[in-house]
Structures are given as structure tokens and as C-alpha cells.
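chain below, 248 aa
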Amino acid sequence: MTATLSPTETRVREALTWLERHGSKRQRDDMAERYAIHAPKAFGVSVGEIQRLAKRLGRDHELAAALWETGWYEARMLSAYIEEPERVTAAQMDRWARDFDNWGICDTQSFVLFGRTRHAWRKVELWSRRRDEFVKRAAFATLATLALRDKSAGDEPFLRSLRLVERAATDERNFVRKGVSWALRAIGERNTKLNAAAIETARRLAESDDAAARWVGKDALKQLASPAVRRRLAARNAKSEGQSRVRS
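prediction:
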């Protein structure tokens, strides 16, 4: 006698069928060869197609958890787009982060989901000390997300987080150091005050005796000290001052 599937199990099966139908070997090969995303279980579906399916499915906490448990790369990517950020627990974030096995799933979860949760800042602090490569990267991908998206946060949390950046910059692993650089650059593009602080940090790193730290510092400096960034921040500052004068 065939067991009756629950509504969530039915939706998982339907989602996996859809993903398999929209996958291709070419996309799987591109993931590995062009983007260095190595996933043991992948259909080969583009991010655009995953986002299209997410819009059809809508937000669903139970479905997101069930999709994650399948282990399929695209199902886990999909979970970031349909999960309800306000229902995500700290324990869930830890469980999912421990499963990260490539930068694609790490960055998508961090940028799309983790940075929107109430636990984000705490996880940045905790994960920045972890040894696991993709958990540690998740700390800085989430920090970069907060710098890019959290418009309500003041400067102080980001100024404090620069010590995390500096401490982790000596990690020679490629995906960690790139995540650290991303966070440093994102902080330095929030406003002129944070730009100055980030440049100061980047210059110290660029002069370090440690090769990984030097790479992070030089990589960040190229962007943070560029004329384009300075013009953008100056324009943003002038706009903010103009709005303040209008309100007063």
C-alpha cells in the first residue's frame, strides 16, 4: 500500500521534477568549469530559472526546510528564495552552514537569506572564527550583505567588524580571502566615514608580512581608493546633506 504524501512532500517532489526538467549537462559543466562550483548532486539549472520557480512557489518555511534536506544543489538554492527570514532560527543557520560545500550555495544563502535574519550580526561574529572554509566565508558574505543592504544600521557595527576582517585576512584559502575582501569593500562603500576606516584597514593589510593579508589589502584598495567610488560617495554625501537641510 502506497503511503500518502503530505502537502509539503508533494510540493518537494513537484519542485524536483521541475528542476530536473529544466536542467542540462551544459549548465552543470559550466558550473564546474567556468565558475568552480562543484556540487555532487546538481541538475544544472540557471539561477534565473530557479528564481522563476521561487516566484511561483512563494514563501514557505516548511517547504524551504524540506528542499534543503534533499541535498540537491538547485533545491538548496531555491530554499534561499522561498524561506521566510523572520522564521529562520539560529540553529537552522548553523545546520545549513555546516552543509555548505561550494561558494555558490554559501553566497546565495548569505546574500538572499541570512543577511535578512535577526541572527545575522551574531553569526558574522561566531562564524568568522570557524575553521570550515565555507562557514568562515559565510561570515564575511553575510557581513558584505549587511553592508550593502542594511540601511538602518549605524556605522559602529561596521567599524567594529573591521577587526574581524583584519583577523581573518591571514587565511590563505581562496574562498575565505575573497569573502574577506568582499566584506571590506562593501563596508568601505557605505559612506565616507566607513570608506576612510576601510582604506586604513586595507593599507595596513597591504603592508603586512603575510601574503594572504597583503592580497586582501591590495584587492580592496584598488576599489575603495578609486576615483569612481570617491565620486559616488561624495554624491551620496551631498544628497544626504541636502535632505537634512530640507527637513530642518
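The CA atoms of residues 112 and 181 lie 19 Å apart. DSSP finds 14 helices and no strands in the chain.
thats it, cya
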